[in-house]
Amino acid sequence: GAVVSQHPSRVICKSGTSVKIECRSLDFQATTMFWYRQFPKKSLMLMATSNEGSKATYEQGVEKDKFLINHASLTLSTLTVTSAHPEDSSFYICSARRQSGTEAFFGQGTRLTVV
Amino acid sequence: AQSVTQLGSHVSVSEGALVLLRCNYSSSVPPYLFWYVQYPNQGLQLLLKYTSAATLVKGINGFEAEFKKSETSFHLTKPSAHMSDAAEYFCAVSDNTDKLIFGTGTRLQVFP
Q: CA-CA-CA-CA torsion for A3, A111, A54, A95, nearest 10 degrees?
């Protein structure tokens, strides 16, 4: 199967700072990447869909200025949480797929803690 | 609009017993249905998927699920639980836009 790698796996940052999470497809070119947020004991919530070379499409209720998504290449997408606050603490997961209709592969997730 | 309901946030079984995790869906179009497994602090791994072919879908690790349109269900089963099956399981539905809508998950515990 294809491999999607997220980095870092865990990050602790101070309130007010920004943190960047990387999602890489290691052995395939991903035309589309998805970013999810998972709350404790809750399901995964799709935050945004990003296609390589174009602006991300955000889901309703997700602040695009707070959660900056960049998909500059076919193997890398980044999620930057700007001016992080404790309520942004969560588990963030990305997934990537080659093309529409194919399986999306998930990264191992990033545990963000804002103190 | 699509949605998924997973009945039972926790399921406990003995090793060797039948595993049954329930999933009901709502969809205005023919759905694609998925089961994923998540181990602690990890991403999701696809167990199996239904894409309008055979209604009984076999997946990895001995799991299978049956699509029942009349019941709008896609329950996940495994004849004999193993300790390594302990994890969080998510059912998901998608239409042809590839957007996945996840259920709230079911935590499976397996006791020796």
A: 30
Q: What is the 3-state secondary structure (H, E, C) of A48-93?
A: EEEECCCCCEECCCCCCCCEEEEEEECCEEEEEECCCCHHHCEEEE
B residues 5-64 near A, CB within 8 Å?
Answer: 9, 36, 41-46, 49
C-alpha to C-alpha distance for B106 and B9, rounded to whole angstroms: 4
Q: Check B99 against A111: CB less than 8 A apart.
A: no
d(CA A97, CA A33): 6
| pLDDT tens for each residue of A28-44 | 999 899 999 998 777 88
Q: Tell me how far apart the alpha carbons of residues A30 and B111 are, in angstroms, rounded to a whole number.
A: 40
Q: Tally the residues of chain B.
A: 112
| Interval A35-56 mean pLDDT | 88
Token representation of residue B92: 């998901």
